[in-house]
Amino acid sequence: MTEGEKKGTEQRQTTRRHLVFYLRIFDGMSSRVVGHLIDISPKGLMLLSDEPIAVNEEYRLRMRLPHEVTDSDEVIFRAVSRWCRPDDNPDFYVTGFQIQDLDDEAEKTISSLIEEFSFSDQS
């Protein structure tokens, strides 16, 4: 847990957006599902998972994309888990990731995904 989480303060610098799609996030090139996307920004994302995810670990993640987003079926990127906590539903865990060094193509794809298919539930 970071100091910001201990104090209950928000350290995120970009607004994360919820998508109209329920996207699965996979571990690298395997078929193992790490979790399901809750929200995303160009700098980070939050996943819902069945198991807790180790904190401060770097992951190679793969997100399958809806065909409406780009010509590509998926985007692969590196992300570091920054925190993990039980969800309101005790059967699940929520984990925050910081996206690392996106290449231009991945950044365009994620930005397009957010722009075209996101909504904000904040007032």
Would you write up a description of this structure?
With about 120 residues, this protein is of the alpha+beta class. It has a domain at about 20-100: predicted glycosyltransferase like domains (Thrombin, subunit H), CATH 2.40.10. The protein contains two helices and eight strands; from the N terminus they run αβββββββαβ. The strands form two sheets. A six-stranded antiparallel barrel has the order 2-3-4-7-6-5. The protein has a two-stranded antiparallel ribbon with strand order 1-8. A hairpin with a 6-residue loop joins strand 6 and strand 7.
Q: Tell me, what's the shape? A: globular
The amount of beta strand, in percent, is 35-45%
The biggest beta sheet reads: 6 strands, antiparallel, barrel
Low-confidence stretches: 1-10
The CATH superfamily of the domain at 19-102 appears as predicted glycosyltransferase like domains
The radius of gyration is 14 Å
Give the CATH level 1 class of the domain at 19-102.
Mainly Beta
CATH topology of the domain at 19-102: Thrombin, subunit H
Task: Please supply descriptive tags for the structure shown above.
Thrombin, subunit H, 123 residues, globular, alpha+beta, six-stranded antiparallel β-barrel, disordered N terminus, two-stranded antiparallel sheet, 8 strands, 15% helix
Write the layout of secondary structure elements.
Blueprint: H1 3-7, E1 18-19, E2 24-27, E3 33-40, E4 44-49, E5 58-64, E6 74-86, E7 93-100, H2 104-117, E8 118-119
Antiparallel strand pairs: 1-8, 2-3, 2-5, 3-4, 4-7, 5-6, 6-7
